[in-house]
UniProtKB/TrEMBL annotation, chain A:
It comes from the Bacteria. Keywords: ATP-binding, Nucleotide-binding, Repeat, Sugar transport, Transport. Coiled coil: none annotated. Gene3D superfamilies: P-loop containing nucleotide triphosphate hydrolases. One of its GO terms (molecular function) is ATP binding. This is Sugar ABC transporter ATP-binding protein. SMART domains: AAA (SM00382). CDD domains: ABC_Carb_Monos_I (cd03216), ABC_Carb_Monos_II (cd03215). Belongs to the ABC transporter superfamily.
TrEMBL record, chain B:
The chain crosses the membrane at residues 21-42, 48-69, 76-93, 99-122, 129-147, 167-190, 224-242, 254-272, 279-299. This is ABC transporter permease. The keyword Cell membrane applies. It comes from the Bacteria. Pfam families: BPD_transp_2. The lineage of its organism: Bacteria, Pseudomonadati, Pseudomonadota, Alphaproteobacteria, Hyphomicrobiales. InterPro entries: ABC_transp_permease (IPR001851). Its main location: membrane. It is found in: Cell membrane.
């Protein structure tokens, strides 16, 4: 135990129903430092920080905070001790004002709003935040919401603030403002952990960097000791460098028939007058920042948006004008959408893998027999299990007990059983282990080779570059740029997406 | 990271499920033995037949309710549909309509109410507990205004109705045969047909069912139509047994007994789990319990109190065994 450390984790392991999210991790956070936590999706960064913030409890190992052994059972307990976490999706109450959110949970019995606003205004001004304390949180932009979260953490006298991907939704100006703010917090002696996918930020801002892969810490040290190349190498290991980072030059597949064409599509404020086409035998990548409207475009096409917020435009499937209000006819006509949130609308958790696949078969486009049998479900599980190398699935295991990678493969297989003409993958490798990522990318390529039209939506640039033949860049609800694989570089795509 | 899905935890989960069912069976057996030993009339032939007859109405209703609950719904209209559907049949038969035809009309009315409920739940997307609560009162209220009297008696000369009430097949009372047939049919429906699988899928995860392209709305509407028809069938059983229908039954605790059977039997209120077997197990336990308490001369009020406490306990256990969202959602994402 060194005095310089405010948080120490020793031999820490966290497992969810015996699947470890991270294991045997030793981690130090020094007082007053900015510590960047890097790693691929599913590497265990979020879970590690959530343990520190009291969201989860360690399965094994111990954690000390300021020299004392601690084990928080709730985030509130961690916050009281002095550890605050700012989550990816903010934890503010949207219907309340900024001031109410700031003092949430400590209202006096007779709450005077005016006093609250005066107090909040002084507090925010003291931190140099230009946020109106009477504004309703739902009306604020991402950057302002983050400011409120930070103000709340500081108000609770947090000594450690953890940020989960704080910059993902910020514009470049907002980012620089955010990093200035971090410096100010550090001057006040607050230690900061931030999780990020953007390596340049980590290199520029952090004092120290820790890289995780597959639930283990693979590199940790002073930021000065790292370069972009060494971080990437640590992040992806040897297995991924070839497929993910284009060291093996691919040639783009040629254009097939025009399967989908979208013209001047608008819906609510999310998609604005957007036009694009998708061709068979080709992978079309859709890149954009979170909230750019990619998912919404896909969902309008597949008939998934719940309310009728269609504001015009035309969608043509194989030249025929279509407009789906529910997914059923879209699936019947051959458009399937593989969800970005498989837990929410991807799989049936109490059913086995085979039964899940059978649900795909029972849709109208596939083979809606009126009599079903368990034997057929098991047969489907075997067939697709082999094809997608699902590992160690017992016939009776429920979906909820499978690893993220296996769950994702089952969701994909369920869609492919529906004999689609056009498959839309939304973040196909989110929360999936590294081995499965490579396999899913290969599968996506195979589908295009077989002549299917494939769309891949991803916020992860290397993924887009690894799988796409043609890249559409989406910004603020519109496809703003289209480029072929040969013209695309990380810099070019990112430039189009943010400016 | 491929440690998932080994047989062990699968077995453990099944263990919980199985033991819930087994516990209910064990309690039923123990109660049966205790009542047989301590109560004079309990083991008499007359009483056993009384248990079976009472149970068949409750059980039939519970098959319908269980079917809805598997699809993550709840149908509080069942008792209202039962009394109003049957009373309607009797009412139009008093105009001189042939009784059998009148029963068919009653069944159509029940189906129409079910259709309306289904549309309210599936298309207007009103949470089923509120939609069915409101529709139940409306149906009962309209019935009372139209029929003008609380108790309606069936014509006494209907042969098939007498046969339902007192006939037997191979020594088994006809009412029990009907309950068995409804249960067997439902079991087949749920386990073997596409429609049954779709009900489980909708109950397990309605969003996934929708995204997968399953016809979720037609499934839900069909479910409520079927449960209304099953409620009507239960009403016909009752009419056979007591030759009349008391519409005030709607104000009794019958609907809670039905829920008690379903939850006690082990059909999780979070949907997607359980089946007809659970309904039968729950029906037997509640049947024995009610009968024993009646022989012991417990007042109606104290019987209700005991059953309510059991229902509360069963709901609490259900919430722990089949958590919805919070706890399960933590294990999927790493």
């Amino acid at each position: 135990m060194s005095d310089a450390n405010i948080i120490e984790l020793r031999n820490a392991t966290k497992a969810f129903s015996r699947i470890p999210a991270f294991k045997n991790v030793n981690f130090d956070l020094r007082k007053g430092e900015i510590h960047a936590l890097l790693g691929e999706n599913g590497a265990g960064k979020s879970t590690l920080t959530k343990v520190m913030a009291g969201v989860f409890k360690l399965t094994e190992g111990k954690m000390t905070f300021d020299g004392k052994d601690v084990s928080f059972s709730t985030p509130a307990e961690a916050l009281r001790a002095g550890i605050a976490m700012v989550f990816q999706e903010t934890n503010l109450v949207p219907a309340m004002t900024v001031a109410q959110n700031l003092y949430l949970g400590e209202e006096k019995m007779f709450n005077r709003l005016r006093g609250l606003y005066i107090q909040a205004r002084q507090f925010l001004a003291g931190m140099g935040f230009q946020v109106d304390p009477t504004a309703q949180v739902s009306t604020l932009g991402a950057a302002h919401k983050q400011m409120v979260e930070i103000a709340r953490a500081v108000h609770h006298k947090a000594r450690v603030i953890i940020f989960d991907e704080p910059t993902a939704t910020l514009t470049p100006e907002e980012k620089s403002h955010f990093f200035n703010l971090l410096q100010r917090l550090v001057k006040e002696g607050i230690a900061i952990i931030f999780i990020s996918h953007a390596l340049e930020e980590a290199l520029a801002v952090a004092d120290r960097i820790t890289v995780m892969r597959d639930g283990e810490i693979v590199a940790s040290g002073d930021a000065k000791g790292f370069t972009r190349a060494t971080i990437v190498q640590a992040m992806v290991g040897r297995t991924l460098t070839e497929t993910l980072h284009g060291e093996v030059k691919r040639t783009a597949r040629p254009y097939g028939d025009k399967v989908l064409s979208v013209e001047n599509l608008s819906c609510a404020g999310l998609v604005r007058n957007s036009s694009f086409s998708v061709f068979s035998g080709q992978v079309t990548g859709m890149f954009g920042l979170v909230g750019a409207g990619r998912t919404e475009m896909a969902k309008v096409v597949a008939g998934l948006l719940k309310r009728n917020i269609f504001h015009g435009g035309e969608i043509r499937l194989l030249g025929k004008s279509v407009r789906y209000r529910v997914p059923r006819p879209a699936v019947r006509d051959g458009i399937v959408y593989v969800t970005e949130d498989r837990k929410f609308d991807g799989f049936f958790e109490t059913m086995t893998a085979g039964e899940n696949l059978q649900m795909g078969e029972l849709t109208e486009g596939a083979n809606p027999v009126s009599m079903v049998s368990l034997a057929r479900a098991r047969q489907l599980a075997r067939e697709w299990g082999e094809r997608l190398s699902l590992r160690q699935i017992s016939d009776r295991a429920r979906m909820i007990e499978l690893s993220g990678g296996n769950q994702q493969k089952v969701v994909i297989a369920k869609s492919l059983i529906q004999k689609p003409k056009l498959v839309i993958f939304d973040e196909p490798t989110r929360g999936v282990d590294v081995g499965a990522i490579v396999e899913i990318h290969q599968l996506i390529g195979d589908l295009a080779d077989q002549g299917m039209a494939v769309v891949v939506i991803s916020s992860y640039l290397p993924e887009i570059l690894a799988v796409s033949d043609r890249i559409l860049v989406v910004k603020r609800g519109r496809v703003v740029e289209e480029m072929m694989l040969s013209e695309a570089t990380e810099e070019r795509v990112m430039f189009a997406a943010v400016h | 990271m491929e440690l998932a899905g080994s047989g062990k935890s699968d077995g453990a989960r099944m263990g919980i499920k199985m033991s819930q069912e087994l516990v209910v069976v064990a309690i039923s057996v123990i109660l049966f033995i205790v009542f047989s030993a301590t109560l004079n009339n309990f083991l008499s032939q007359g009483n056993i037949i009384a248990i079976l007859k009472n149970v068949s109405i409750l059980g039939t209703l519970a098959v319908g309710m269980g079917f809805i609950v598997v699809g993550r719904g709840i149908d509080l209209t069942m008792v209202a549909v039962m009394v109003v559907g049957v009373a309607f049949s009797i009412w139009i038969s008093t105009w001189g309509v042939d009784f059998t035809l009148a029963v068919v009309c009653g069944a159509l009315l029940a189906a129409a109410i079910g259709l309306f409920t289904g549309i309210m739940v599936a298309i207007a997307e009103i949470p089923p507990i509120f939609a069915t609560l409101a529709i139940a009162s409306s149906v009962y209220g309209s019935g009372r205004i139209v029929f003008a009297s609380d108790v309606l008696y069936a014509p006494s000369n209907i042969a098939w109705l007498k046969f339902i009430g007192s006939g037997t097949i191979l020594g088994i009372p006809m009412v029990v045969v009907i309950f068995g047939a409804v249960a067997a049919l439902m079991g087949f429906f749920l386990r073997k047909t596409r429609f049954g699988r779709l009900v489980y899928a909708t109950g397990d995860n309605p969003n996934a069912a929708r995204t997968t392209g399953l016809p979720t709305r037609p499934i839900i509407v069909t479910q409520y139509v079927l449960s209304a028809l099953i409620a009507f069938t239960a009403g016909i059983i009752m009419l056979g047994l007591v030759t009349g229908i008391d519409t005030r039954l709607y104000n009794s605790s019958l609907i809670y007994d039905v829920l008690l059977v379903v939850v006690l039997g082990g059909i999780g209120l979070s949907g997607g789990q359980g089946g007809v077997r659970n309904v039968i197990v729950g029906t037997i336990l509640v049947g024995i319990l009610t009968n024993g308490m009646t022989i012991l001369n417990f007042s109606y009020t104290s019987q209700n109190l005991i059953k309510s406490v059991i229902l509360l306990g069963a709901l609490a256990i259900d919430a722990i065994i089949n958590p919805r969202d919070e706890q399960t959602s933590q294990s999927g994402d790493i």
